[in-house]
Amino acid sequence: MKHSRLVYTAAMCLIVLDWQPGQPQWLRLSANRDEFYKRPALPMHSWESIPGLYAGKDLEQGGTWLGVRDTGRWAALTNVRAPGAGPDNPESRGELVKGFIESTLSPQGWLDSIDGDAYAPFNLLAGTASELWYLSNYPTRRLELLQPGRHSLSNAHLNSPWPKAELAKDQLDQAHSDLANLLSRREPWPDEVLPATGVPITWERLLSAQFIIAPGYGTRCSTGILASGNDIDLQEITWDERGQKTEEKSYRLAIKDR
User: Fold this and answer.
1) Architecture of the domain delimited by 14-254
2) Torsion angle of alpha carbons 176, 124, 220, 67, nearest 10°?
3) pLDDT tens column, 170-218
4) pTM of the model
5) Are strands 231-239 and 217-228 parallel, antiparallel or unpaired?
């Protein structure tokens, strides 16, 4: 498979969440990251360079696709599948997640400072325990405060009704634990319900699965987040090219300043 603008640089590719600010259990989230296997990355770990941050790390650009900090700040990223769109020499989208988590600005204040034209198409979720914002730069800038409830995000826009994203919402309704294993459907969807995103139909089929297995490319990790009060439980599973589990990690963070 050839590298092109289809490459999902340091991004999750399917996220589903139940966002309930002000409630005892304020976040349940499950996410799969799809990427070429030859792109080097570290699994979720505690970052020495940013105390209190737990995230995977893209070793090619230095950013991440999803991260949570013990300050209560967290963020997650997907790419918008729009082949050929964006600047010729874009900034790393994985730096958006890291940059927000490092910042002390309010979510809205930090997102207002982002020059979306400097990046290839992206979706970004950025929040705290009390507020969650969504920013997209494609096809035009879109910034909004998320309302409580279920939301899905793949490689289109927030709550786009792609089959795998709609299924994810139903799956989340039935799940209250083991969120890292939630997005497990490995079968592609029928051609008649596939989106038309400008990639070849063979890719469209492969990418329609929640859990992707393809030569050299696929779901490399799955993450679950369960946040209640001041505690955030993290679980991450690392997968190999055959779709077999190779590593599993879990952490519990206590929010210091809320």
Assistant:
1) 4-Layer Sandwich (3.60)
2) -70
3) 999 999 889 999 999 999 999 999 999 999 999 999 999 999 999 899 9
4) 0.95
5) antiparallel
